[in-house]
Design brief:
The chain is elongated. A hairpin with a 2-residue loop joins strand 20 and strand 21. Helix 6 packs antiparallel against helix 7. The protein is α/β, with parallel strands linked by helices. It starts with a strand and ends with a helix. The structure holds MU-OXO-diiron. The site of MU-OXO-diiron has 8 residues, from helix 2. MU-OXO-diiron binds next to helix 2.
Length: 398
């Protein structure tokens, strides 16, 4: 249902409870919202749209605000990814004279995805568009999350429409605003959204944040999740910490095990970590925990210990997938431990070592390898790895 943010600015987004995987990849146990915003003024502007599946709903929401009155004059596209642009064709059919506003890269992608609208306007960084009482200022923030991404700042109300940045997973329940919802729930799902979807571009998020420093932001209205009117700085600061790869003291042990032997090694390391004072430990089986949640925990905690059995003389496939994502996302600032096992042909530990050599990891020894079931000597090494890791955590700033 359309919700007023000010007398003239409305949320007209939708809640998606049907999609299981965002980008066909990331689980949505609590759904997701696609936020779009309508500004009523001498000229009417819409900021972003919603996923195509919800196009008709979306048009109904807009019409409920406009009461069959004014047409849409401008559609501002902060981000062309189809979760935000999918309803463009519904709008063009309903408002054929609407002018579609974006930067040069936006419009190139727009033409690739959709039927070209009748009217377009290309804007540059910091250009403004006056609607009457409201003035929109465009802030180009490339690669958060695509090359064309930009933010729109409304100067009178000091509302920042930020696109994906500051957004998170989770449908809006109980209310739209940060002071109406269970914020802890959203913060957890926002971190998972950041680490899964935006994290690869952490450096670009830092640049975008630096660019925003001069703008007073009263209300933060992103493209997913709650609108922050009580404390916009809170979510901005969290995005700043996450994009700086700031971690908490704790260890993720992610392991692959077919018959329980590599799992025994993982559990032995975990017990040793506990014995040596580490309180936050996540023991995650890559076959049973979706990679989305593993990446989220890895981003959060300073220590990462990877263990894999060998499968067809190479890494276990789910571990291989995890490593390829970590590699692609350039995860930084972590201590790393390694262990592996094989039965009749080696592979897993050497593949883990190659992964470690490629990235910016501080590797904690010993790297451990078991043949078949772990021997007493191997389990002793596991305990030693736990001890060495706990010590390294104590002396390494998070
Ligand atoms: Fe919410 Fe990058 O799309």
């Amino acid at each position: 249902m359309a919700t007023a943010i000010t007398d003239d600015i409305f949320w007209v987004g939708v809640n998606d409870r049907e999609t299981d995987l965002f980008e066909a990849l990331w689980p949505l146990p609590h759904g997701i919202s696609y936020n779009a915003y309508l500004i009523r003024d001498q000229k009417t502007a819409l900021i972003d749209t919603v996923k195509k599946d919800y196009g008709e709903n979306f048009i109904r929401e807009i019409q409920s605000v406009l009461s069959g009155g004014p047409k849409i004059d401008y559609l501002i596209i902060n981000h062309i990814e189809p979760d935000h642009s999918g309803a463009i064709e519904f709008l063009i059919r309903r408002y054929p004279e609407m002018c579609v506003v974006g930067n040069e890269k936006t419009l190139r992608l727009l033409n690739g995805f959709y039927k070209v609208p009748n009217r377009t306007l290309i804007v540059k960084d910091r250009e403004t568009l006056c609607l009457g009482n409201h003035t929109l200022e465009f802030v180009l923030t490339p690669m958060v999350h695509w090359p064309e991404t930009m933010m729109t700042y409304e100067q009178k109300t000091q509302i920042l429409f930020s696109g994906d940045v500051f957004g998170g997973f989770g449908v809006l329940q109980k209310g739209l605003f940060d002071d109406e919802v269970d914020l802890d729930h959203y913060i957890e799902e926002t971190r998972r959204y950041f680490t899964n979807v935006i994290g690869k571009y952490a450096g670009r998020v830092q640049k975008a944040l630096a660019k925003l420093e001069a703008l007073p932001v009263k209300i933060l209205a992103s493209a997913h999740g709650p609108v922050y009117r009580k404390d916009p700085k809170k979510i901005m600061e969290l995005y700043a910490q996450w994009s700086r790869y700031e971690t908490e003291k704790g260890v993720v042990i992610a392991y692959a095990s077919m018959y329980g032997h590599t799992k025994t090694m993982a559990e032995t390391i975990a017990h040793s970590l506990t014995d040596h004072g580490v309180e936050k430990i996540k023991l995650l089986d890559v076959s049973h925990t979706h990679i989305s949640f593993i990446i989220n925990d890895i981003w959060r905690y300073q220590g990462l210990i990877l263990g894999s059995c060998t499968y067809n003389t190479a890494l276990f496939p789910m571990m291989e997938l995890l490593l390829s994502v970590l590699d692609n996302y350039h995860v930084q600032n972590h201590l790393l431990g390694l262990f592996g096992s094989y039965s009749w042909g080696g592979g897993a530990l050497s593949a883990l070592k190659k992964f470690a050599e490629k990235g910016a990891w501080k590797v904690i020894e010993p790297a451990i390898e078991a043949q078949c079931a772990p021997s007493k000597e191997v389990l002793k090494q596991c305990r030693e790895l736990g001890r060495a890791f706990a010590q390294a955590l104590r002396i390494t700033p998070a």
